[in-house]
Fold this sequence. Notes:
Helix content is 18%, strand content 40%. The longest helix has 24 residues, at 164-187. It is built from five helices and 13 strands. By secondary structure, the chain is of the alpha+beta class. Mean pLDDT is 82; it is low at 1-21, 29-33 and 137-144. The strands form three sheets. Strands 8-7-9-10-11 form a five-stranded antiparallel beta sheet, with no helix packed on it.
Amino acid sequence: MNKLSVMIMALLLTTGSMKAQTVISSYKPGVTSEGAVYYLPKTAIRITFQIEKTTYTPGEFCKYSEKYLRIKDVSPTPSTKYRLMAVSQEPFAVADTSKCFAVKFDARTSACNVRLSDDGILLAINRDIKQQKTPQATAPIKATPITKSPKSYLSEEILSAGSTAKMAELTAQEIYEIRESRGMLAKGQADFMPKDGEQLRLMLQELDTQDQALTSLFTGVTTCDTTSHTITYIVDKPIKRDVLFRISPEFGLVDNDDLSGTPYYINIENLKTVAEPAPADPKKAVKPQQAGIYVNIPGRLRATIFDAKNQILASEFPAAQFGNVELLSGALFNKKYTTRLLLHPLTGAVENLEAEQPK
């Protein structure tokens, strides 16, 4: 049911047999034939985490790196590794289907303008609200720099060498010549010095690029890429040590039952900031349904994310599911008052209530 339909129905529907009050009842399909059906919210958690992928590609001359460049422990084997980089969590509201009510309207009441969210959560009565959807932040597209292949810096002599070992030797000599030229330029002792500082900077930058490209033929190339993932976690009760996700060092994000991945857990704790209602006495008669508007008195929860060794993140959020439901008297919405009600969109608690007597 969209918001426009609710407003039109609220304005037009009348029931001559009802008193001039807003009548609320638990929603029962097929029983409530008129009125606006609404939910109260509960808190869910949106968890976002980043995984870094590191890829190593060995260089063509990797086995000669120690002999010609004195660089030890260069691996000849390509590899890919994954690791968790960052975790964040934020609360958001979802409709609590266990708190569903139907409100009927009488033309003699003031509760004639009901505002609901897109998923049916009660937001306001007799209040205009602006539901502005927060635009999704899109990461800027970074232009991938066009890099030359290291082989494009190899001279004709190197390329025409008869063996890989000879090519590695000649490439190492080229690297040392580049480093010597760079040192002479930096000291101002080169045979052909640039005319100004900008030209010197460009020359040194080009020599650095050539050095790094040729050296990568020995040391290999390591690249890093980060991906973002989001999990929606619905909170219904306190939870201990629930597997949130698993990350394998070799395969990245894997299924929660895949034991190759390191598990990351979540705890949900009820902080019990709201007193629990007294249990109903079975000997007493059940009170009849009262008229009014139901709202939440939210509690608080603590969400903790951790692995087998360390706590990674702990946050506290308001949580209507760990609180109580209270009734705003239907007398507030009769013609004796002009009542405006605004509920907190996350918790369903009263954020603003104005009840004015008409002059």
